[in-house]
Amino acid sequence: MLLGTIVFYYMKDKYVVTPDGKPVGAKPKFGATDALKHGESEKANFTTKAIISVGILMLVLFFGIHFLSLDGNLLPDQAQNPIKVWVYPFIYAAGISLAVLILTDKSITAIERDRILVLYAVAFFVIFFWACFEQAGSSLTFIASYQTDRNLFGLELPASFIQNANSLFIIIFAFPMSFLWVWMQKRNMEPISPVKQAMGLALLALGSLIIGLSVKGLGQAEKLGVIWLIVMYFFHTIGELCLSPIGLSLVAKLAPLRFSSLLMGVWFIGNASGYALAGTLGTLLPPTGNKFKDAQEKVGLDLQAVLDKTITPSVEQLAQLKANNIPTHYPQFLGFTIHNLYEFFMVMVILPGAAALLLFMISGILKKACTAFVN
User: Fold this and answer.
1) What is the C-alpha to C-alpha distance for residues 104 and 286, in angstroms, rounded to an integer?
2) Are 123 and 263 contacting, i.e. CB atoms less than 8 angstroms apart?
3) Are 338 and 208 in contact (CB under 8 A)?
4) Any residues with CB less than 8 A from the CB of 113 and at least 6 apart, and which?
5) pTM recorded for the entire structure
6) Which letter, b or e, does each residue of 259-278 get, where b requires 16 or more Cβ atoms within 10 Å of its Cβ?
7) Backbone angles phi, psi at 317, to 5 degrees
8) How many CA atoms lie within 13 A of 45 on its CB side?
9) pLDDT, tens digit, 9 for 90 and up, residues 95-130
């Protein structure tokens, strides 16, 4: 990163230039910007009252989300996860507060407000995609490690290697997908960006549904075929190719010039919120087969009975379970208890599936709300 920064600093005026050779990215000069050419205001007009109000809103949101993030199932000697209860609330609160602050600008026109709201909608729905997609590096790897038969064509695949299917599918399908969009554009058939995003969310839900149905009824000692994980990654990758490329392009095309950087920040906070939610969803993974085996062999307990509350472990046994990182209760999400892998994957189906349906339903409104909407 340091080397890249040095190269950029010394070479930017030579290579990062406009078609007529002028440097790009210099400090803006009011009265000489493109904003005037487009009839836009050059400077934002935030009142002191608005800034203070948004600051208070951020504090309220931060502590409110912090309170809701506290885990009430922890034992007295167990500490809260600082990332979950402090960092994640800050990300969510910052994203919402920044979005509200931009809308308080008194110089925003009705058309600009509509375009900003379109960007907010896209940034909101992308949260659900990355929250489920990024299970690849956490919960899905645990499943690949402990409850998957990783033998493929006579080869035993490392658990961490299976998620590389995503990279392989990106290499294989990136060009065909790009060609498809160009082909459809020439025939006036290309869907608008929110519809592409809805397609990506739907494909993500479909991939999760396939793997969910594959693990339904899977016993503690039984294993999932690795081919089903690969099939899931295929659908997730195609969904990524539908959704991922549109974000930054959409911000650049729709954002008022004076808010380009702030709205780019809103987009990235939306992505960050998705990664934060991914961490929360990853904690919903119920005990895999190895946990039941460890509880029996190392602690001498029937973990199923402990989870079902039919037996109560002693203090010594609870300490042993904690030392071996074995949970004593099922994870919960929005009041629902996750008992098995099928229910876990249904969360990954319902969240992006519902988001895809809602986004598809309002895509016409988003298109209408933004005059001269671009793909």
Assistant:
1) 44
2) no
3) no
4) 103
5) 0.88
6) beebbbbbbebbbbbbbbbb
7) -70, -40
8) 7
9) 999 999 999 998 898 888 998 999 999 999 999 999
